[in-house]
Structure of Uma2 family endonuclease:
Amino acid sequence: MTSSLPKPLNSPITPAPHLPPLENGDRLTRPEFERRYQAMPGIKKAELIEGVVYMASPLGFKSHAEPHGNLIGWLGVYQSATPQVEMGIEPTVRLDIDNEPQPDGVLLISPASGGKSNLTVDGYLEGAPELVVEIAASSAAIDLGDKKRAYRRSGIQEYLIWQVFEQKIDWFGLEDGDYKSLPPNQQGVICSLVFPGLWLDVAAMLQGNMPQVLATLQAGINAAEHQEFVQQLIAPRS
C-alpha cells in the first residue's frame, strides 16, 4: 500500500500552475487538499486533520524509525497468521471531508469478512480501518487531540499510540462512542478486543525486546480465541 498520493520521484517541491502551494496550517477541504498535494510531488508526507494541513518534519531513528519498525513487525507477524486481515504502512486514508490522515500503520479486516474500510478505484483506503497505530514524538499533541477525535468520530475501533519521549503506550478501544483505555492484564499484556490473539507485552516493546514481544504475540496466535476468530473470518468465503 502506498504511503502517500502518487508522485514522480526526484521532483522539486513546486505547485502546479494556478494552484497555491500546500503549506503547514492551511485550512482546506479534502478535495482541495488532494489537488494541492498531488501538484507538489516533492512533499513526502502531509495529512489533513480536522480541516488543517500538517506536514511531517524529518524523523529521527530512535524517536520514530526504530519504534515504528518494531510495531510494524509485530503487526506483520499477526497479519501473516490471520487470513482476511490486511496490514499497511502509512496509507492515505480518506475518512471524511475534513480528514485524510496517513497513520503510521493500520490493521484492517477485509470487506468480504465484514471490515469497515475498502479500497477506492484509485487505490486508497476509504472508511475506518479497525486498528490504527501512531508513533508520537513531536506530534503527540496532534495524535492525542484532533487526530484522536477524528479517529473516534469516524468509528475506528482501536487506536494505539506510542509516546516515545514519555516511554508510554496507550491502546484505546471504542466503547459507546468514546475511546476507553484497554488495560493490561496481570502480566502486563494488552489484548485486542477487535483482533483476538493480538497481544502486546508493553514493557518488552518499550524496551525494544522484540524476542519477548513476538513470543507473547505467538502465544496469542496459538490461543483458542484466535483460532475461533480465523474461522469467523473465513466463513463468509466458504
The CA atoms of residues 116 and 137 lie 29 Å apart. DSSP finds seven helices and 13 strands in the chain. The helical segments are 30-38, 61-80, 140-144, 146-154, 202-207, 210-222, 224-234.
